Amino acid sequence: MQLHFSPSMRSITISSSNGFIDLMKIKVAARHISYRTVFHTILILAFLLPFVFILTAVVTLEGVNKCSSFDCLGRRLGPRLLGRVDDSGQRLVRDFYKILNQVNTEEIPAGLKLPDSFNQLVSEMKNNQYDARTFAFMLRAMMENFEREIRESKFSELMNKHFAASSVPKGIHCLSLRLTDEYSSNAHARKQLPPPELLPLLSDNSYHHFILSTDNILAASVVVASAVQSSLKPEKIVFHIITDKKTYAGMHSWFALNPVSPAIVEVKGVHQFDWLTRENVPVLEAVENQNGIRNYYHGNHIAGANLSATTPRTFASKLQARSPKYISLLNHLRIYIPELFPNLDKVVFLDDDVVIQRDLSPLWEIDLGGKVNGAVETCRGEDEWVMSKRFRNYFNFSHPLVAKNLDPEECAWAYGMNIFDLSTWRKTNIRETYHSWLKENLKSNLTMWKLGTLPPALIAFRGHVHPIDPSWHMLGLGYQNKTNLESVARAAVIHYNGQSKPWLQIGFEHLRPFWTKYINYSNDFVRNCHILDS
């Protein structure tokens, strides 16, 4: 770029470097413009020209150098110099948003053929020259179809998981059958538990008595082994294991052939308790035998369910509430502990899906303050699955009897590891309250709550619960895949409540080792039944 001054200083020409194109020519009239003015003009131009050069370079780098005329360059540089931006792209976006909003309020055309993939959609758009409206309809229909398929897949997954959680794994079934056969053929498997000389200790209140009700032999072995190995005084431990009639022989065989000395183990079947008669447990008899209830728990869980009106999470909760274990007499026996063990004063009740990682003898030193049930409250945490539970999570407060008698904000507590003061319990009407509410729920066709052991217990134990430190009992290992491993390692008792039990294939792999470490894989029965073989 060059400046040319005429000899008479009456004109100034600004040209390109090759001299062929004049960018600007200024003619100076001597009568009207002084030399000072010309000098000032030159100074101003000298100041502005570098900026013009920089803008031209920027535009060139952006591809505007394709322009073949100054008119084109002006159209490109003009808005930049004036602070304006071309908004054609924004107008296109706004127009497309408008079309999307219109399509969202209209019905999808009948018979609209949807492509199977995004690539097919792009190909059809090119071939058929779709307008924006047709494309929007295609996009909406494809999205709704994908959402519907994903939703159906999620419900199918939940159903399969429910069936897996309700089934008995092949290895555990094998273990029960082999041990039952051993009971009939091996005298050592039938030996008395405990030996006659230790029978008085079954009612000695100076010992630490644990009660476990289960028909899962492998799970029972883990509970007992973990408690004994974690105890500072294993010689003070007495385990009372209650099982059903069909599992009794196998359960007895296991603990007869695999003693946990110096701890003491007693195995009893429900058929061996004289107190468990129809007269004493009429409601539970009805729960087990009523056809409507049995169909509810063993029938088709999809039939009659409006899946379009429920979320997968709500459906999962309903499936969990329909576990067949909830109508098992074995699962309800905990409410009869004072009658089943009339000589005991204080016991710790354990579920079969727990692992003991710390000495539990301090539990017997906890002052329950005249309460019956020492339990961890489940309304003090942040997670929604386990530790944020109140009565509203368990009961139907649209039912008038529930709304009248219960507080939806009352804190819930956990079964699975409970300290029971049986002496105080026997002075209450807890069992009668439990029965009466069960009867009311049966009369209302299960509309007050879906059957289970916890909801009626929440009512029956109202005013009789003493909260204990949450570190004693960590819940949720059968629900939450993202459970913190450090917290698990610190807990005294970890509880695999939920569907993903550690003995099932659907159990969480990173949480399973806390349970499997207490399985004796060298045991012939465990090895021959291929327990948890990968």
TrEMBL record:
The keyword Glycosyltransferase applies. GO terms for cellular component: Golgi membrane. It is found in: Golgi apparatus membrane. It comes from the Eukaryota. The chain crosses the membrane at residues 37-61. It is a single-pass type II membrane protein. The keyword Transport does not apply. GO terms for molecular function: polygalacturonate 4-alpha-galacturonosyltransferase activity. Pathway: Glycan metabolism; pectin biosynthesis. Its main location: Golgi. Keywords: Cell wall biogenesis/degradation, Glycosyltransferase, Golgi apparatus, Membrane, Transferase, Transmembrane, Transmembrane helix. Its EC number is 2.4.1.-. One of its GO terms (biological process) is pectin biosynthetic process. Belongs to the glycosyltransferase 8 family. This is Hexosyltransferase.
